[in-house]
Each structure stands twice: as structure tokens, then as C-alpha cells.
Amino acid sequence: MEVDLTNCDREEIHLLGHVQSFGCLIALSSDWLIMHASQSTERFLGEKATNLIGLPLHQILSEKAIHEVRGAVQLLSTRDSIGRLFDLKLLPGSDRLFNLALHRTGRTTIIEIEAADEKGQCVDPLMQVHNIVSRLKTCKDVQSLAETAARFLRVFLGFDRVMVYRFAKDDTGQVITESAAHGVDTFLGLRYPASDIPRQARALYLRSVIRIISDVDDRVSPILPEVNSENEKLDLSLSTLRAVSPIHLEYLRNMGVKASMSISIIVDGKLWGLFACHHYKPLVLDYVTRSAAELFGQMFGFLLAHQLEVRRKQDSEVARELHDDLMRHFAQSSSLSDDLDQIIDGLRDLVAFDGAAAWIDGKFQTSGATPTRDEIMTLVRFLNTTATSTVYATDCLMQVHPPAADYTQRASGVLAMPVSRKPRDYIMLFRGEIAKQVTWAGNPEKPVELGPNGVRLTPRKSFESWKEIVHGHSAEWTPQELEVADTIRVTLLEVVLRMADSANLERQRASERQELLIAELNHRVRNILTLIRGLVEQSKSDLLSIEEFTANVSDRIQALARAHDQITRSNWNAASLRELVETEVNAYLGAKRDRVVFHGGDAIVKPDAYATLALVIHELTTNSAKYGSLADSLGRVDVTLTEEDDGVLGIRWVESGGPPVKAPVRRGFGSTVIERSIPFELGGKVEVTYPLTGLTAEMYVPARHIARFEAQPAGEPDLADNDAQTQVPPLSGLSSPTVLLLEDNMIIAMDGERFLANLGAEKVLTASSVTQAMSMLDAETVVCGVLDLNLGIENSLPVAQRLRTTGVPFAFATGYGDAGELAEEYPDVPVLTKPYDEDELAAILRQILFATAPE
């Protein structure tokens, strides 16, 4: 029976009432009487289908088999549940083994029967799935996950090609990765129209994870009778044995495919894509292997969902960090429009765009490639007609806003974030036109044509790629980018509301701050006047002449002024002590300033201590110039700034090389300032001594007066040792390096492929047998080979002889303790002992590729 897809409104698009010949099917009513059977039952059950209709089940199956079947049906928990029985003795008096699959459809139980592989399998399929799932857990992204899975399935199932086919938002699909046997054409990157897998088929893929076609030319067996007593056809939606649409078979024949299999990739209950398997000869897979493949598909879906969730969380975390950065930045800001650059820079790390524009508070700003002001104002009026309180995005602006056709090169796509209430303000991100070259597998404009099955959905006759250039489009905005944009939109709205509240509060505080500022200014002026009066009064005690008195007072006031200048330049914040000393030295010593030598780092001193230290440094400098080491042409001063325990600042002033000194007989104002200012005003300590070599002053300032310490500038870095330089991958310097990897263990082969790719191999030819390796060497030239010595029932010595004859270097790999017989025939060939890692493989490659060949 054929199904006209143009009028089909059911989920099934398969050939209802037919099954493939590698199994048989029987359908039972609730009272366990056979209602339907396929013609192929005679091969399996020994009776024709017409002879079985109406018989009780116990007349066909053994008592134990009926017990097992009843138990399996009892365990079916949901509408689409499938029960499985393996290696069951089905028939009375027969030791022949069968595999069964059971499911319910309405009031009917369907049992699918296949002959079991009585020889058994060398390797447990479920264990292979377990091993590869463990490997898949280490993949870091979706692409590597898909590539690893495709390689595993091709080896595990034996198909010539395994593709990972991903559905797009518009239901088109693309081959995102592929693993193909040597010599098989590639479908990688091809894109297929939505009509290739219609809606009904996608719904069926979601219910039935596996679909298999063992032979496209197989003669299918009908179900008898075609309808039941209520004139209803048997629903085979969940049947693995069901025959498929003749249209799909024609589709496969056009590609030269003889057998195929699909495994649904389901993420969060939705059809994400398919594993599509092709073989160019008929291929029958036993039910155990298919069940393991179905389990693998389900596990892959879980791992894929995890990878997608990890990526989503990473994007969300980055968006959260941007949110926090913006909130901190705008904590004291009064306008979004004043800080557009800050917003744009943050978004650029999360969303790719070519230009940005903002219309905020009646202000217009742009960055990068954007439409003109007039064009954007027209766009803003269009955006005001879109949904409120949400991000608006399109990758083809001219389709929804025709005036955009005039500036597609600058802005074919837009992502607009409303950041206020009506009238709405926007931040807009633009993407220019990208002439998207889409490689279609056949012309997507001709999905329906007249075929042997009438005017139906007939597959396109040509599978040559069809390249289409799409104009007026930008790169699509991904769901992750839209989620990030919405997060930032909410952030900016929060900023706007905060700014509105801050503006009101700021107006209330403005007058209070003005009054406080006037009071603070009055206080500081009074303090300065009091300090100057004190300088004048204390300087009288030095018993100087009028000229000397005037000069001393003037110098001390200038020292205070210089210190005041330094802290006011930093808005009355902490300032550099080293800069204070340098300023005082430069101002007073002139040509002698080079004789003051600094050691250690720097201390950033708070304003309340800065003036006090300025007077102390001034007195030390003037005393040294008048009476100490700087009084002649030979002396020097060493100034060392250190961070002591508990954050205390240590200042060591040591004079040397000048005239001999001795302690003063009386204490003048300068000496008093040096010895008492820091202890009295800052709570620190000072110790001044007068050895003959010169004055030494050790001063300690408490940590509460220090904002921070800064290290001494580092010197030039040492040159790196040659041994520390990264070695060049051994294969990267060769022209088109292709490597032969002969390995019969799939997991080790996958590791070897990855290692060789990391070491610079452009292409790796992987073979599991001598025959495959010889075929590959006939077709391609390799620069070297890595040969597993023991290949199950054979060894790699014939391949080694072939490589030696052609002059191609190679190395052996073995899991045995030594090379054994190799020592005689190939004593010069290096041996890689399993398990090996990338570094060991790299060393072997350098040895065989670059070492001097033996005479």
C-alpha cells in the first residue's frame, strides 16, 4: 500500500502493512489471539501467515516463550515503550533462538521476531557503547562530541558512511560532521531542504529512535489481513521491521545507497538531528547491535544536552559579569548616553556585530558601520511598532522594513534593545550583508516533480551540490546571543531606574553638599593660617637675621605649598612619597639633586600625613645642604623606603661623604620638626643619630597613614633558555603530510588520529587490516607510517615491507614487552610501546623523519 504524502495527515509515512524480510511480525488482540501476521512468518515460525490467523498463541509459541512475552508486555509503561527479549527459544520442541521486540498500539500488541545470532559475538556491543560513552564525556564542545560519535558508529555498525545531520530553525538540515570509509564521496557541509524530511517523518523520528533499511531492493512482505474486523489498518509507527515509503527507497537508490539506518538525536524532548548511516551493499544488523545503537543514541542525546547547557551557562555567566561591570560603572553615572562606549565594549565580547547606534534621551550616537541618522530615525519609528519589553532581531531587515534595502551593505541585520519606557530609547547592533553561499544537495526550489509514484514528494534526481547566493541577509543572531541581549536589556533598564532615583536624591543633597563644602573650605583656610602663624613664631627662636628669618619662613611655606600642590592634583587623594622627596630635592638642591640616591619602592601616603612629612623632608634637605653631606662637592644622601611589619612605612635617610658632623648643641625649629613631628602628629617613631660620617635618620610612619606600597620597577627580563623554547610539531614543516595509521583497536586508533593531527598531520589514513592499508597506499602517498605489529590473526609485516620498498619511514607499535622477531628483520625500526602518549609519538616521529638513515 502506498501513501500519497500530499494528502497525508497521519504521523506515519511508511508503507503501512508491509515489513522487511529479515524478520516477521505478528499482532495480537487483548485476549492473545493472533489478529495479523506477515507473509515472512513461514521462514521463522514454520507456518504461513494465513494458517496462523485466528489461532490462540499457545498453539504457536512454547509455554516458556508465552510466559516471557506476557512479562515483557506487563512492563510496557508508556505509549511508546518497547520491550525486548533476547535469545528466546520461541517454538515448541525447537532449540532455535530468536530475538523479540514488543510494543502496544491501541488494544493490539505487536511482536516482531528475528533470528538470533547463535554464533555469539566476540565483543559485547553494550560494553563497546559503555566505553565510547566514557570517551564522549571528555569532549569539550558539540563539534568534537559529534565527530567522535560518528567515527565510533561507523566502526561499530560497519556502515560506509555515518553523518551527523542537524536540523535548523527552518527545518532544513545540514551535515555537520561525517565519518566515511576510504574512497567514499563526502556529503560534509551539504544542506538539505525541509521537504527532504517532511513534518510527518520528523514526528515519527521523535517517537521511534531507530529506522533501518537492510536492502533497498528487498521484496517486502505484506501483513495479512490488511485490516481487522473493524476495518482498521495496523499502525506500524514503532515497528523496526516496517517497510518504508517507496519514495524514500527511490531517494536512496538515486544516491547508490543499498542499506541505511538512522538514529534520532533527541534533546529535551525535541528532535535535534539524526545519525544518518549509508552503506553501498545490503547490510543486516542483528537486533542486539541495533538495541545497543539505540542506547548509544539516547546516551548521546543526554551528553549533547549537557554540552549545550554548559555552553548556555558559560554565556549566562559572561552576561552576568557584564551586568555586574555595568552596574558598578553606572553606580555614579547620570546618563546612559554618556557611556555608550562602555556598553558597546562589553557587548562586543558577547555578540558579534559590525556597528552600533543609540537613541537615548533624544541623543544620537553611533560606533562602527551603521545607517545614517535619518535612516536610523526611520528605523526607530518602525521599532516602536514591534512588541514592547523584548529584544527585536532579524537577519533580513529589508523584508520587514523595506527602506533598509538602501543600506544592506551597512546593516542587513539588526538586534534592537529597548532601554526605556515609551517613547522608547534603543541600543541597536547592526550586521552588514554577508553573501551567504549555501551548498544545497540539489536545487531546493524543485522538491516536487513527476516520478514513478505520481505527482508526489519525489527525491531530486541529482545529488550534485547546488550553490545559492542569498543577498540582503546578515549572519543569523543565535539563541545564545538573543539571551545575552535580553539580559543586558534588563540590566540597562535597571540602570535607567536607578539613575532616575539617583537624580532625585542628588537634587536633594546638592544644597547640603554646598553647605558642607563651604564649611570645609573655611576650616582648611583657618588651619593653614594657624600653621603659618606657628612657622613664623617658631622660626623666631633660631636667632637669625631678618634676611635669614625671612628666607627660612619663605622656604618652609614653599615646602608646604609644594606638598599641597601634589595632593590637590590627585583630588586630595593619597600621593607618592618618592615624588614628594624628588620635588623637594629638585626645588632646593639644583645641580646637587643627582647626589640623592633612592632605594626600594614607593609609598602612597594619605593627605592627612603628607604635609607633616613634607616639612620633615624639607628640614632634612636644607640641613644637609647647609651643614651635612651636600654642603661640599663629595657627599651624598641615600634615601630608602621600605614596608615594615604590619604595613608600617620605614624611611631611612643616611648622609655620607661630607664634612664631619656632630650633634647640635641646641635644638632649633628644624631639628624639632625632624625629631618630634612624626611621633607627635602621626603617632610614629623617629631616631636621629650623628656619627662623624654623616647624619642618619630612621623614621617609621604607622600603616593607617599609608594607602599602599608600590614595588621598585623590575629590570629587564632574562632571556629564555633555548631548552625552554617550544618545539615545532614534527609534521608541520612537511608538504601536505599524510600519515598511515595501522591499528585494529578502535579507541587506540581514535587517540592516534588525534595525536597525529596535533603533531601537524594534514590527513591520517586509518586502517584496521593489512588489506585496507595496502588499498590506501595504492591510492595515496604518505610521509610515514605507524604500524601496530599484532593485528589479531595477522601482523603488519607486509605493510612494513611495502613501506621499506618505497622508502617511506615508519615505526612499530606494540603492547607486548618487546619486539620479538622484529629484531632480526627490522632492527633499525623504532618501537612505540603501548600505551603511548602524544609526546612519545612525537619523539618517535622526529627519530624516523629527521634522524640520519643507517648505512
Describe it.
The chain has 855 residues and is α+β, with helices and mostly antiparallel strands. The protein folds into five domains: 18-115, Beta-Lactamase, CATH 3.30.450; 124-218 and 237-329 and 436-470, GAF domain (Beta-Lactamase); 336-433 and 479-502, Beta-Lactamase (2-Layer Sandwich); 543-710, Heat Shock Protein 90 (2-Layer Sandwich); 728-850, Rossmann fold. 37% of the residues lie in helices and 23% in strands. It is built from 21 helices and 37 strands. Strands 1-11-3-2-6-5-4 form a seven-stranded antiparallel β-sheet. Strands 9-8-7-13-12-10 form a six-stranded antiparallel β-sheet. Strands 15-14-18-17-16 form a five-stranded antiparallel β-sheet, with helices on both faces. α4 (125-136) packs antiparallel against α5 and α15 (607-626) runs antiparallel to α16. It is elongated. The chain starts with 17 loop residues before the first strand and ends in a 5-residue tail after the last helix.
